[in-house]
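Re: the pair you flagged

First of the two:
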Amino acid sequence: MLQPGAGEERGAGGFALSLGPEVKEVEETIEEMLIRLDEFCGMTDMIRSDTSQILDESIPLVKAKVREMNNIYTKIDKLEKHTPSAQHTYDLPELYRTEDYFPMNYADNKQKPT
């Protein structure tokens, strides 16, 4: 007759042996997931540091440039108010047609090297 617990040990051992390759596959999958999780954490840390740099350095620089440009625009507006509007007191440049100086058949008239 079987003693209580004896069959259980054999059954558990047989169960552990039958799951050997499957357990290895699960462990490999877990290992891959941990590697991916580590890569993801590294990426989020990089994004976080880039975001901090943008917030701490780049945005204040952009704001300073905006203020500087607004001052320049104000100066330009003041200059435009004080200068009379420029009327067309000049003649537009004379336009020349390229065809008048280089006829279309000019290339055909050249002697072709033989």
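Second of the two:
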Amino acid sequence: SLQTLNHVTLASRKGILIKDGRVLEELSKVDTVIFDKTGTLTEKQPKIGEIFCYNGYAKETVLRYAATAEQKVAHPFAKAIIEKAKECELSLLKPEDSQYHVGYGITVHLGDNIVRTGSLRFMGNSNNCFINSRK
């Protein structure tokens, strides 16, 4: 109906995706909603929350290195990392070179360090290290 179409349009303007307008007609009968997929209840742009550091690295160093590695990547998580670095007023470095591993992450060389950012699977392939020494 036209009314349902209007409601779907209004929801869309508020960032709510309704795949089938018929669900609005049945919504009054619902008493429980279960979400089963990661990303179902997220914002359009992710944000960086708490940063946890290991091996004596400062949060600013980890964030600066991560933002430097991600600075040319268009992925939403890369943008979130870069935005957090800007909020913290951190200057980015110039990597010597970088390698993008499709579907996994990115590796950059910063001085004596190799910095890797990416998926858990990708990080697992580097012994769970974010920063490794090239020495």
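Residues 2-13 form the longest helix (12 residues).

-B.
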